[in-house]
Amino acid sequence: MENKTIGNANDTRYLILITILSVVVPLLVAFLLFMPQTGKLGDLDVSFLPKLHAVLNSLTAIALMIGYYQIKRGNQRLHRFAMVTAFVLSAFFLISYVTYHYQAAPTPFGGEGTIKMVYYFILITHIILAAIIVPLVLLSVYFALSKQYARHRKVSRWTFPLWLYVAVTGVVVYLMISPYYA
After folding, report:
1. Would you say the C-alpha torsion 120, 50, 166, 92 has a positive or negative sign?
2. What is the DSSP string of 10-21?
3. Dihedral (C-alpha) 71, 76, 79, 85: value to the nearest 10 degrees?
4. How many CB atoms lie within 10 A of CB 155?
5. What is the mean pLDDT of the chain?
6. Gyration radius of the chain's alpha carbons
């Protein structure tokens, strides 16, 4: 039986927190992208982090696909494990990404012509959807943890493909820009 907690005080508190995080996280990332804080952590070498970001995004995409496959098979336990894994990997990615952009100078894309247009199309859609995915992921997780499965399924229908797109395009963006890292 589904837990009918719609509209209770817990929902309100968590939905307010999700709303705040959904605004603060993209604003922080945008601030770091447009106003780099290069070198604020002293001589800390963060040059390895873009490669780590690609690995974390790859593992997130794999966890998402495993989670999707498992829920289609009716295996809620493995679905939950895969989705928690994807969430944790994404959280590590976000912390690492913010650290990198707080410390490192931005890397311009050096390609020309059509490849440059392709790169920027992928990058722009990745950035926009990465901002949109924050509240969707948080809502999906909250609804699952609070056993509001109908709401979880409704939100997750959008969350899964967008989150997967963001994870995969994160790797593609890395592969395209990696030749231009200093």
Report:
1. negative
2. HHHHHHHHHHHH
3. 160
4. 21
5. 90
6. 18
Q: Which residue has the higher pLDDT, 19 or 3?
A: 19
CB 131 within 8 A of CB 112: no
- Checking if the pLDDT of 1 tops 60, the result is no
Tokens of 90: 């994404």
**Ramachandran bin of 167, using left for φ above 0, alpha for ψ from -120 to 50, beta for the remaining angles:** alpha
Contact between 27 and 92 (Cβ < 8 Å): no
Exposure letters 73-95 (e unless 16+ CB within 10 A, then b): eeeeeebeebbebbbebbeebbe
How many residues in total does the chain contain? 182
Which residue in the block uniquely carries the two structure tokens 């390609």?
Answer: 111
Is residue 24 scored above 80 in pLDDT?
A: yes
Residue reference for tokens 């998402």 = 64
- Residue 7: per-residue pLDDT: 53
Residue of 124, 136, 144, 139 whose CA lies nearest to 161: 136
Residue type, 154: K
Both tokens of residue 77?
């336990």
What number does CATH give the domain 9-180? 1.20.120.80
Taking the C-alpha atoms of residue 109 and residue 175, their distance in angstroms, rounded to an integer, is 11
The residue type of 7 is G
pLDDT in tens, 98-124: 888 888 888 899 999 999 999 999 999
